[in-house]
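Changelog excerpt

This revision adds worked examples to the README so contributors can see how folded entries look when concatenated. The first example is reproduced verbatim below.
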Amino acid sequence: MTTPADVEPDATDPATLRGLFRNPAARDYVFVGLGALAMVFVVLFQKGSDLGGLMLVLVGAAGLVLRWPAAPIFFLLLLLYFSIFPFGLPPADENPFEIEDGRFRVTDLVLAAAVVVYLASHYRVYGLTALAVPAETKYPRKDAPPARRPAALVRRGEVARLFYTAAAVAVAGQLVWLFATTVEVDPTAAFPLKAAERRGRGAADGLPPGLTRFVLLAGVVGVGALLARLVFGYWRLRRMTPAEGGMILQDEGWNETRRERVRLETWRFWARGRADDPKRGTTR
């Protein structure tokens, strides 16, 4: 009789360190993530932050190969710190026009795209090797296998589409930042948004620059979330089958009349109890 211990593990199982580099789908994302980390190091080294680049590469590579779920969080925190303090210690860059001069800078575009590629590669590898989605039950069995994404579902050209998406995200971020740094807010005007009239504008023309950028970014995020909700909500309705639509309408009908139905069922239960036992005046 063959026992589970006698069965040899699959050499291409990405859950093992050996299979991580033997499985074609997982291996592609590992090398893509390592290449993105190398690009992050080159950009930070060009900015004079060689220590920050080395720390980011170590944290990112260890998290990618060992599948640490918390590695992207530490990676982003370190990137934020060394972006503010390139040499590792305060003070930060005190150039008052750095924000305006940094728009559509090639090194910043490359850095943003590389960070997006690394994060996507890390979570793809984590989904292929550990846990792609949360468990369906609140208390899953200890012997239940993790809900991993099958490597066979990785389609051809997925890595290329990742590069295109990262480039689009980097350019879209720069466009949003261009809007936030070239428009100022004047609460006293009939239309509160207007183009900045001078470089390094101050609070005399409206809100302070930092508060202006915060208000504009918050507005962009809010409007973008609303539009995304409308678009994806309509798309979900378009793809819904008649059975799914009927189920949703029935569920909404039950929710709207829940109190009245509970009251009716309570009286029906009481009447059924009286009919079964006439001598009993009340029921539980």
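The second example, added in the same revision:
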Amino acid sequence: MKAFNVITGLPRSGSTLLCNILNQNPDFYASSTSPLSELLAMMVNKFSTSPEVQAGLVRDSEAMTDKCNDVLTGIIEAWHADQADKVVFDKSRGWSFNALLLQQLCEGAKVIVTVRDLRGVFGSVEKQHRRTALFDASPSGLDKTIFARADAMFAPTGMIGQCAVGVEDIVRRFGNQVYLLQYEAFTLDPAAKLKEIYKFLEIEYFTHDFDNVENVAEDVDGLYLNKFPHEGSGKVTATNRQEWQEYVTPDIGSLIYGRYPAYNEFCGYQ
């Protein structure tokens, strides 16, 4: 591949839309949700717990470290071997937690982080949840309440909370080495934001069509009971920043907003 970059960040924050737009450039390949970061993390864990690897580190630390490094870079190259002539963007929220590994394996890789007002993220999730009431895997009646759903999703291990923690961490570690893409600003003026991204990538700008976006970076939404559809096609239109208020009461909105103050500060939601 010509270059390896990653896209990570929050759910419901426009990563699929971004990938679909990037894929209009014939020199680019932006993936659907990828398992690559998870596979690499599993290998790192195996290296770190394997008695054989530990013994190898005792015998010759440099040689064993090189072997492990070569295995992981080989996995990255093999995973995207069919895109040898492309600039690759591997999309996964897992990269937020594996940025140190990425930096070591792929020096120079660019990291694009899609973010959104946390209340808007939950509002988008709740909006779709109400459309699919026939499917709900909540283990108890209490877990079906909107308060319990918000509390669980914004816990540090929750679907949204862990991503917010990951974004905080990647900003703390790398600062200006990542590009934070606000969903609200992206949908308001996609051309301006794409030009910023190209500048960040240090690649000559390609003229994109924001009126006719095709959904090519598809995810299998049925695996998640169609609760979180990844549809980023058609004409890019500005999102309603206050739409979350139709689905989230002010008290829960205040709790969500106050849960991750560092995220709000880093990402410009103050």
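Reviewer comment on example two: The chain has a mean pLDDT of 92. The chain has twelve helices and five strands.
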